[in-house]
Every structure is written in C-alpha cells, then in structure tokens.
Write a structure and sequence with these properties.
The chain starts with a helix and ends in an 8-residue tail after the last strand. Residues 142-147 have low confidence and may be disordered. The protein has 4 helices and 7 strands, in the order αββαβαββαββ. 31% of the residues lie in helices and 25% in strands.
Length: 147
C-alpha cells in the first residue's frame, strides 16, 4: 500500500517499540524519550549508538512469512559481519491494524550504516539513538520517493 509521508510518520509515531534486554526483560522504546534500560546496556557494551530496524514488509507492503524470515536472517548476518551485536526487538501496532514485526536493535551502528541498511532492506524508516538512548525517527526510502 502506498502511503504519504504524513501517514507513515503518524503510523511510526503511534507504533510501540520493544527491545529484549540481555536479562530477558522487555523495555519499551519511545520516540524522543530516553530509555534508561537500553542506555545501561549501551554503556556496559561501550556502544555510543543504537538502531532499531527490521527487514519485514519492505515499503510497508505485507509479504509472506518465509520471505520476511529470510530477509531478517540476512539483516542479522549483515550486522554481525560488521562486527556488531544486536538485541531482539519488535514493533507493534497498538490498534492491531498490522501484525507485529520482529526487529532488532543494533548496537554501535553508525548513522550512515543505519540509513544504508534501511535502504538495502526497503524500509521506510529506522529508529536511531545516540549514547543517550533516545530513539529518533529517520526516514529512508519514503523521503526520496518519486511518487
């Protein structure tokens, strides 16, 4: 489904984002707010950045489970090939309009790497944080769309 920038921004702003911490607890990531538990993990691992991203449903177009799982595994491999670690994560629609999307939080990914991976996996946007663990919405493909 094609979506305007405003509609996508609204959907991303309303979504709920969770990261699974090393102790197994889930922490909620809120746009524009510091996530203390994630900040603690970042500090413990000497990571100055964190990026929430997924390979599921490129350009917000639903697709099959097998395709999504294969691309998510490829994304994990790309993060690991960079020598970085990741934490399991998930994006959820609080209204139930779309299925939850398995995601990950990559620790230590640079801003340019985050944008490049978002583009590579066809994502409209990623969430990116500096050392303060405050997630900010960064548009990828949608911001450069010709339509």
């Amino acid at each position: 489904m094609d979506r305007s920038l405003a509609a996508c921004a609204d959907a991303y702003a309303r979504a709920h984002y969770f990261v699974t911490l090393p102790d197994g607890a889930d922490a909620r990531l809120r746009l524009g707010r510091t996530c203390g538990p994630l900040a603690a993990v970042m500090a413990a691992r000497a990571a100055t950045t964190a990026c929430f991203l997924t390979a599921w449903n490129p350009e917000s177009r639903p697709r099959g489970l097998a395709e999504n799982q294969a691309d998510q595994a490829r994304l994990k491999g790309r993060i690991e090939a960079l020598g970085l670690t990741w934490l399991a994560a998930e994006g959820r629609d609080p209204d139930g309009g779309w299925d939850s999307e398995p995601s990950l939080v990559a620790l230590g990914l640079t801003f340019d790497q985050a944008c490049a991976l978002g583009d590579e996996f066809g994502q409209n946007a990623v969430l990116f944080a500096g050392a303060d663990a405050t997630m900010r919405l960064v548009f990828c493909l949608l911001g450069r769309s010709e339509t």
